[in-house]
Write a sequence for this structure.
């Protein structure tokens, strides 16, 4: 599958960004600091502070807002990268955001002495664990799916997938909230009374949470690569510390350990959000910068072309003016009575000389572009095509173009210049992208195919654009012929020149049902560029 | 020195760094009976002494050392009034505008049409011929002016200013008869046949009432 190769080279979103050494160190340092925090707090875990349910509610509110924003950002990431792992993470955060509400409502003494929603003694404790299981479980799914290739499907609508995910999460939150409140009797007892936990119960559940988080951490550790992975590991680590604190050192509510645990769980909701926000800002800045660079490059390219055109025209105008002068002088000397034959002869000889100078201008011009050491290498056309697609990966995605590739595995190499062949394919892809701008988003398909036919290789680039006027299919390859508003009309002329230099041919045909197909036929293992060149550029005159 | 033969042999000076174009232009001018002198650079042109005949300059706007426009400005500063036909291989409009504003005869883009070049050169030479004629006349007038006495000069400028004999007499404190006598000798010495002609001469000489 060539499609899977187009990845990771050009990170366009946070879920593609590899972790730098600096980021890894940062994560490690934070992890150690958190451990130090735990060690400091642990001995005082059971020191009572007093009931401040408002503090609990405030913390929950912050967690809700954080996780909700994180979920939105992750869903947005999903719609760009279409990774199911990211979808799982987004779902996990959405679940946390919502279950936190249920937990806050049922928290005793927060709104009513027993908590809302008909909460019993166990309701809020169970909701606490549902809340704390969501992150490690969703990270586990993320870690499981993150490297699965083929998980990225461009055809499926991201909005529909996100809607499904939200519905599932809502159902889960609703169901579990009911279970913890109305269905409380089906669940084991955790708390013996308002503040004291039933012996052993809390330990079992925190151990369970710890194990889930540890498993998830272990898997992610094995598969870590992205900066997101490292921060997710930190989330799991913090969760494990919190469970250690709550499960082992803390036996009562409203103690130092209780509040410190809340602090830890607040931190878990901050890490990924912070990373995402920072990533958004940084990527945006980078985008703006590269936009500037790109525009500058385009400008200077145009300027170079203009300067080149001006100097070529100057070089040619000079001898042309001489030719005109000599020619008309010769005519006038012929009209003299008697005709001044000697002057006519001289003028015509100078005229011939000047004509040769024009020829020299073009000869030296060609010398500029044909480098004597031009590489003549074996080129795998599939590889060249993939490389070209890789360059356009972001652009294709932004233009919502579906790419279909059928690159035959039994391709023989051609002899030639890889860079030039790639130039041909990138030119054609760029044309296809531009052409499809006018058709509806769900009708944009770019097809790239290679096949082997006897002793030649066939490469086709097909788009589903509006197609080209059948009368113009022959002239599109001529220089300065363009159908684009701001085009120079050089792209296809360059394509044809390169293909012909490689001893091949290029055609344009209408596609079915609409669009156009460019077919390139290249001979297998052409004896060499230089031979083909000699055939095309026979020395003029003499 | 006062050569006023109606059709003396005109010369076209060509300054262009391209040898082939110079030769071509020389042939073109020769074919219509115009003599051309060729120069590869402005420096080369400056080294030669210009013959005293009607002439014009065919000048490339981009020359290696000193540009055509710069040279045009130099000539104007040195009070040398030779009509210039510019050529360019680039066809840049800003430059052509500057050249025309500075008094160029014509601005031709290479490759020019032969007839355009010949027309421009003929026109330029015609203009130069006229300039030279005027210059010769002015010289003659200046020589005549030298022969006037201070009083005669004074009366000439007052006449040219449109004053009647009586007014002039009052102005400088002599009798009307004396003014008449001086006036008669002014007309004779300057070679003017009428008051109108005398006024034109005074204008051409730029003699001002105040300066006397």
């Amino acid at each position: 599958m060539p499609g899977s190769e187009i990845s990771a080279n050009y990170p366009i979103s946070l879920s593609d960004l590899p972790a730098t050494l600096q980021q890894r160190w940062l994560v490690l340092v934070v992890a150690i600091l958190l451990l130090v925090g735990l060690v400091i707090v642990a001995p005082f875990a059971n020191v009572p502070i007093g009931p401040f349910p408002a503090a609990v509610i405030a913390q929950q509110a912050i967690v809700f807002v954080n996780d909700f924003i994180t979920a939105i950002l992750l869903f947005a990431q999903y719609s760009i990268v279409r990774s199911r792992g990211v979808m799982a993470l987004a779902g996990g955060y959405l679940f946390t955001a919502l279950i936190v509400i249920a937990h806050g409502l049922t928290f005793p003494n927060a709104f009513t002495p027993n908590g809302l929603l008909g909460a019993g003694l166990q309701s809020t404790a169970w909701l606490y664990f549902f809340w704390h299981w969501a992150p490690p479980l969703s990270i586990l799914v993320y870690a499981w799916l993150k490297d699965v290739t083929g998980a990225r499907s461009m055809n499926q609508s991201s909005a529909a997938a996100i809607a499904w995910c939200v519905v599932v999460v809502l159902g889960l939150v609703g169901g579990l909230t009911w279970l913890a409140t109305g269905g409380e009797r089906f669940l084991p007892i955790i708390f013996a009374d308002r503040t004291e936990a039933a012996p052993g119960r809390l330990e079992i559940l925190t151990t369970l949470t710890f194990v889930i988080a540890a498993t998830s951490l272990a898997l992610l550790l094995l598969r870590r690569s992205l900066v997101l992975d490292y921060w997710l590991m930190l989330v799991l680590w913090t969760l494990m510390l919190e469970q250690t604190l709550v499960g082992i050192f803390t036996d009562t509510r409203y103690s130092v350990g209780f509040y410190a645990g809340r602090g830890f769980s607040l931190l878990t909701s901050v890490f990924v959000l912070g990373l995402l926000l920072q990533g958004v800002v940084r990527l945006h800045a980078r985008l703006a910068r590269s936009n500037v660079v790109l525009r500058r490059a385009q400008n200077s390219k145009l300027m170079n072309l203009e300067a080149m055109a001006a100097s070529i025209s100057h070089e040619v105008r000079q001898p042309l003016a001489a030719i005109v002068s000599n020619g008309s002088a010769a005519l006038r000397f012929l009209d003299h009575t008697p005709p001044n034959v000697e002057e006519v002869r001289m003028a015509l000889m100078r005229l011939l000389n000047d004509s040769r100078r024009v020829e020299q201008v073009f000869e030296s011009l060609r010398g500029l572009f044909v480098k004597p050491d031009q590489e003549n290498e074996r080129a795998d056309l599939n590889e060249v095509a993939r490389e070209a697609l890789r360059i356009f990966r972001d652009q294709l995605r932004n233009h919502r173009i579906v790419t279909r590739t059928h690159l035959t595995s039994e391709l023989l190499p051609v002899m030639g210049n890889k860079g030039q062949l790639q130039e041909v394919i990138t030119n054609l892809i760029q044309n296809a992208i531009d052409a499809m701008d006018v058709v509806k988003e769900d009708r944009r398909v770019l097809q790239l195919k290679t096949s082997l036919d006897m002793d030649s290789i066939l490469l086709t680039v097909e788009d589903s654009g509006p197609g080209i006027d059948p009368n113009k299919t022959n002239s599109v390859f001529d220089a300065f012929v363009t159908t684009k508003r701001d085009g120079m009309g050089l792209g296809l002329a360059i394509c044809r020149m390169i293909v012909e230099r490689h001893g091949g041919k290029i055609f344009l045909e209408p596609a079915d049902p609409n669009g156009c197909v460019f077919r390139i036929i290249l001979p297998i293992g052409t004896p060499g560029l230089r031979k083909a060149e000699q055939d095309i550029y026979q020395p003029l005159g003499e | 020195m006062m050569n006023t033969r109606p059709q003396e042999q005109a010369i076209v000076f060509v300054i262009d760094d391209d040898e082939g174009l110079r030769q071509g232009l020389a042939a073109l001018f020769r074919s219509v009976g115009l003599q051309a002198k060729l120069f590869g650079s402005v420096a080369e042109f400056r080294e030669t002494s210009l013959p005293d005949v009607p002439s014009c300059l065919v000048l490339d706007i981009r020359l290696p050392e000193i540009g055509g426009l710069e040279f045009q400005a130099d000539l104007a500063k040195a009070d040398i009034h030779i009509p210039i036909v510019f050529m360019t291989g680039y066809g840049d409009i800003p430059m052509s505008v500057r050249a025309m504003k500075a008094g160029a005869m014509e601005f031709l883009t290479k490759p020019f049409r032969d007839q355009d070049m010949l027309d421009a050169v003929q026109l330029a030479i015609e203009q130069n011929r006229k300039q030279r004629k005027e210059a010769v006349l002015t010289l003659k007038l200046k020589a005549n002016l030298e022969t006037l006495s201070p009083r005669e000069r004074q009366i000439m400028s007052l006449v040219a200013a449109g004053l009647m004999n009586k007014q002039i007499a009052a102005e400088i404190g002599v009798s009307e008869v004396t003014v008449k006598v001086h006036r008669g000798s002014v007309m004779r010495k300057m070679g003017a046949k009428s008051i109108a002609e005398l006024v034109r001469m005074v204008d051409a000489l730029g003699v001002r009432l105040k300066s006397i």
Q: What stands out?
A: Residues 1-6, 208-212 of chain B have pLDDT under 50 and may be disordered. The longest helix of chain B spans residues 114-146. The first strand of chain B starts at residue 11 and ends at 15.
